[in-house]
C-alpha cells in the first residue's frame, strides 16, 4: 500500500512540562483538550452515578436535596460544556488540519488560548464546590430561581462567570476553525471536497459563532441583576423570566447541534473507511449539515411549549422542529447507504459508529414526539425528556466520539487500542445505555418528573429506576475498561503504521503520530478522499494516478513553525482573576476585578508584542 | 382518535393502580401519574396522539434498525483486498427518503394542530367554575370563590364541570400538571397563565409540580379530587364556615393560644380565619383537618405525621421555608424545639380544624 | 498560498540567514495566498463581527421587549435627541476619517494617515464625552441602571456600545504608536484595515441604536 510520507530531518521535538505549557502545536493542544475533557467526562459521569444511586430506590437518602440539586446541575453543565464540546474541539484540533493538509491552525496562539481558557473556566466552575456551594439551578438556570432573591450563595455567580469564560474559549476555537478550514486547504481541496468531519467542524463552528453571543448576553443580564440591582428577569419590577428562556434557548438549541455535528462527521468518516466505500450521497450530506444548522436557529421555543407562549408560536416552532427531522433523516439513510454493499471491517470504531446510527435514531424519534405540542405538554420536564437527550447526547455525541477515539488513536499515538477490550467497552455501553435511557422514556410516561431528588414508592417507578441505576454502573464499567485500554496501550511500543485502516483522507498520509510539521509531501486532491484516490485511483473512477508534490526542498528544508508562547495561558489566568474578582466583588470592595482587567490588558499587549513565528 | 390502545391501557392502569393503592392507602380510586392512563377527554386525546406518533416512530425505528443490522451482517469483509463497488449515491433513492419522511411529518403536524385545539390550556371546552392556583415554594395554594376560600394541596372539583384555572406565582416558576387529566402549564411569576380541568369520573388524581423550583421541587405535589356535584357543594360549604372553636380548657384551646401567640411566629406565616393569624407565606390553616395531605401533599394528614412536622419540619422536608425560618434562622424562638406538650396541644387544635 | 505551499517555498530558502527567512515569512503572511484569497486576519475579523452582530441583536431585542413598559416611556422623555444626534454625527465623521486614513496609507502618505487616525480617536473620545454627558443628565434626574427597566436596558445597551468604542480608541491608539515606529507602510497596512473594519462596525451599531432608542 503506497503511502506518501517522506520524513524531513526532524528538528527534535521539544519535551518537558514547559514545552507543553507554551505549546501552540495543534496536535498537542488537541491531545490536551482530549485528556482534560475525558477527565471532566469521568467527573461528570461520577456525578451521574451519584444521581443514579440516590434515585435507585424511593426515598433515597444518599444525597440531601440541596446537594442533589448541585450535583445534577454540575452533571449537566460539565457534560455539555466541559466534556462533549471540548472533546469535539480536541478531535477537531488534532484531525482537521491534517485532513485539510495544513501545517497548523490559522491562529496557533489563539488555539492555545482556547484550551487554557477552557481549563481555567472548568477549574473555576469546580472551585465553587469548595467556596460555598456549587450552582444548583439546573444546566439552563431558569430565572428567577437564579436571582439573588431566591439563590443566596455564590454558586450561580461561579456558574455565570465560568460559562462566560467557556463561551470566550469556544468562540476562540470557532473562529480559528472557520478560518483554518476556509483558508488553509491543500491545493485542490475545494469546499465541495471537504471530508465530512471537516464539514461537521465547519458548521459547528458557525453555530458557535452565532449562538454563543446569545447566552453571553443572557448571562450578562443575569449578572447585572445579581450585582447591580437591575431587574431584567425580576417580575416584581416588571422584568420577564421568559426573556431568559428565549435568550438561553436561542443559544441552547443550536448548542445541542454543536455537540452532535462533529459526531455526525466522525461517524461519516468511520463508516466510509471501514466499508471501503465513499460516502453515499456526499452532496446531500453536506447540504444536510448546512440545513440542520440553519433550521436549528429557528426551533428554540420548542423548549417552551408549556410556558404559555401563544398557540400560534407553538405551532410555528413545532413545524420548524419537524422540519429539522428531514435533513437528519437524510443523514441516517445516507449512512445506511454508505455501508450498503460495502466491505465492512468490523472494528470497535465501526461498532460504535453503527451503534450510533441505531441509538441516535431513537433519540431523534423521541425528539419528534416532544415536538408534538400536546404530547410535549404531557411529557415535558419528565424523564421522557431526560431519556431523549441522553439518547442524542450520550448515544449520539459520545458514541460518535468513542468511534473517533478508536479510529484515530493509532494516528495520534502510534499505538493500537486493544480490540477485545474495545468490544467489551462497546457492548457494555450498548446494554447499559439501553437499561438507563430507554427505561427513562417509560418512567417519564409514567409521570416521573425530572430533577426530583426523591420520590414516593408505589407509583410504578421503582423497578425502572433500579434498572436505570444498574445500567448506569454497567456504562461506567465500560468507560472504566476504555480507560484501562488507553493506559495499557500507551505503555506499549509504537506499532501502528501510517495507514492502518486503509484510510481515505489525508491524515493517514503522514506518519503515526505525525511530525510537528504534519506533511512533507502532499498528494493532489481531486475528491473528498484523496488518499484513497492515491492508492486505488485506477480502480475508482478514472482518477489519474496522482503525482506527489515534494515539500521537502531536497530533504533539507527549514520549516517554519509558530513560536511557543506563554501569553495564552497568562491571558487566561488574567481573565480568571477578573472573573473571581467579579464573583467576590462586594466582599473585596471591587478591587480584584480591575486588577484582572489590568492583567488582561498587559498580557494582551505581551501577546501582540511577541512575533507569531520566527 | 380514541384508539383501542388508550382504552385497553386505561383498563390496565386502573387494575394495576387500584391493586397497589388499595394495598397502600385503602382508597380504591387513587390515580397515579401515568399519561397513558387518561381519565379526561383532553388527556385521552393526547394519549391517542402519543400512540399515533409512537407507532410511526416504531415503524421507522424497525426500518432503520432492520437495515442497519442486515447490512452489518450481510456485507462483512471477506478478504483483505476485497474492494466493493464504489457507489457515490443515487439521486432517486435520496429524493425518496427526503420526501417520505417529509410527508409523514406533514401528517403528524396536522394531527398536532388538531389535537392542540382540543387539549390546549387556552382552549377550554366551556366556562365553568373559575378558580385560582398559586404556586409557592413548595406547596400549592388553591383559591375558590374569588379568594374567599383558601386551601392548599387538594383541588376539589365536581364531575363534568370545567374548572377554569388561572395560574400565578409570586416567586419562581412552577408547572401545574395532573397527568391523567391534563398536560402541563407553567406557573409564571410574570404573567397569569390559564388552564382548565375537566373530570368525568370521581376519583383522586395525583399531580405534581413539573418545573424545577428549588430545594423541595421534588415534594411539591397535590391532588385533584373529583367528586359528585353534591359532595363538592358540601365541601365548599364547609370551607366557607368559620374555623372550629375549641372548648375552653381543652388541649385544643391551649393549641389555639400557642398558634395565635405572636412569639411562636406561626401567625406571621399562616392564616386562620377570625384570629390574628393572617400570614400568607404558609398554607391557610382554617380548615386544615379537612385535607387529606399536607406540606406539598407529600405526607398523609395524620396525627403521627403532624407531630413529626411540628417537631422538626426541616427533617421531614429539608430546606422548606417553615423549617428554614423556624429552626435555622431563628434558633432562639420557643419553637426550637417546641415541648412535647406544646406539640400535643397544637396537633389537637389543628386536628379539630375540620 | 496554502501552508503546504509555504513550506515548499521555505524549503528553497535553505542557506539563507534566519533573518532573511523571518522577514520573508512576515512579508508573505501579509500577502499570503490563502484558499479564499483573504488574509487570515481579515477573514477572522469578518466572522468576529458577524458574531458581534448577534451580541448586539440580543441586547437590542432586550431593549425593545421592555420598551413598552411605562417607566420606559418616562425614561425616554429624559433623553436629549439633539445631544444624541450630535454624537451620531461625530461618530459618522470618525468613520469618514478612518476611511481616509486607510486611503492615505494606500497612497503611501504615512503622515497624513497618522493625523487622520488621531482625528478618528479624538472623534471617538468626543463621542464618549457626549455619552458621559448624557449619562450624567440621567443620573441627575435620578435614573440609573437599577432604577427601573428603562435605566437597566438603556445603560446596558449603550454601555456595551460605549465599551466597544473605548476598545476601538485603544486599538487606534496602538495603530498610531505602531505607525509612528514605522510599523505600518504602504505595502503593509492590513492592521489599519482591520482596525477600520471594527470601527465601522461599531459605528454602524450606533446608527441602529440611535434609531431604536431615539427615533422610533
Ligand atoms: C445532540 C443533542 C440533541 C439532538 C440532536 C436533538 C434532536 C432533536 N430534539 Fe432534542 N433536546 C436535546 C438534545 C438534542 N435534541 C436536549 C439536551 C434537550 C433538553 C434540554 C433540557 O431540557 O435540559 C432536548 C429537548 C428537546 C425538546 C424539548 C422537550 C421539553 O423540554 O419539553 C424538543 C421538543 O421539540 C426536542 C426536539 C428535538 C427534535 C425534533 C430533534 C431532531 O433534530 C431529531 C431529528 C432526528 C430524527 C427524527 C431521527 C432520524 C430521522 C429519520 C430516521 C427520518 C424519518 C423520521 C421521521 C419521519 C420522524 N428536543
Ligand atoms: C453529553 C451529555 C451527557 C452525558 C454523556 C450524560 C451521561 C449520563 N447521565 Fe446525564 N444529563 C445531561 C447530560 C449528559 N448526561 C444533562 C444536560 C442533564 C440535565 C441536567 C439538568 O437537568 O440540569 C442530565 C441529567 C441527568 C439525569 C437527570 C437528573 C435529574 O433530572 O434529576 C440523570 C439521571 O439518571 C442522568 C444520568 C446520566 C448517566 C447515568 C450518564 C452516563 O451515561 C454516564 C456514564 C459515564 C460514567 C459513568 C463515567 C465513568 C466513570 C468511571 C469509569 C469512574 C471510575 C473511576 C473512578 C471511581 C476513579 N443525567
Ligand atoms: Cu414548584 Cu417545582
Ligand atoms: Cu431543542
Main attributes?
heterotrimer, A: 614 residues, mainly alpha, Cytochrome C Oxidase, Chain A, two-stranded antiparallel sheet, 2 strands, B: 354 residues, alpha/beta, Helix Hairpins, Immunoglobulin-like, 3 domains, 5-stranded mixed sheet, 4-stranded mixed sheet, 41% helix, binds heme-A, binds dinuclear copper ion, binds copper (II) ion
Structure description:
The complex is a heterotrimer of chains A (614), B (354) and C (216). Chain A is an all-alpha fold. Helix content of chain A is 64%, strand content 1%. Chain A has two domains: 22-487 and 500-547, Cytochrome c oxidase-like, subunit I domain (Cytochrome C Oxidase, Chain A); 569-614. Chain A has helices at 17-21, 26-55, 65-99, 108-127, 155-183, 196-228, 241-275, 282-296, 311-339, 348-371, 373-379, 383-413, 419-445, 462-491, 530-536, 567-583, 585-588, 592-609, and strands at residues 521-522, 549-550. Chain A has a two-stranded antiparallel sheet. In chain B, a hairpin with a 3-residue loop joins strand 7 (174-178) and strand 8 (182-187). Chain B has ten helices and 13 strands. In chain B, 41% of the residues lie in helices and 18% in strands. In chain B, the strands form four sheets. Chain B has a five-stranded mixed β-sheet. Chain B has a four-stranded mixed β-sheet with strand order 1-10-11-5. A two-stranded antiparallel sheet of chain B has the order 7-8. Chain B has three domains: 2-19 and 37-118, Helix Hairpins, CATH 1.10.287; 129-239, Cupredoxins -  blue copper proteins (Immunoglobulin-like, Sandwich); 251-352, Immunoglobulin-like, CATH 2.60.40.420. Chain C folds into two domains: 1-31; 38-215, Cytochrome c oxidase, subunit III, four-helix bundle (Four Helix Bundle (Hemerythrin (Met), subunit A), Up-down Bundle). Chain C has helices at 3-11, 18-31, 40-65, 70-77, 81-106, 110-140, 149-180, 190-215. Chain C is built from eight helices and no strands. The longest helix of chain C has 32 residues, at 149-180. Chains A and B meet through helix 3, helix 7, helix 8, helix 9 and helix 10 of A and helix 1, helix 2, helix 3 and strand 8 of B. The structure holds heme-A (2 copies), dinuclear copper ion (CUA) and copper (II) ion. One heme-A (HEA) binds at residues 42, 45-46, 48-49, 51-52, 72-73, 75-76, 79-80, 84, 138-139, 386, 390, 393-394, 397-398, 436, 450-451, 472, 475-476, 479-480 of chain A.
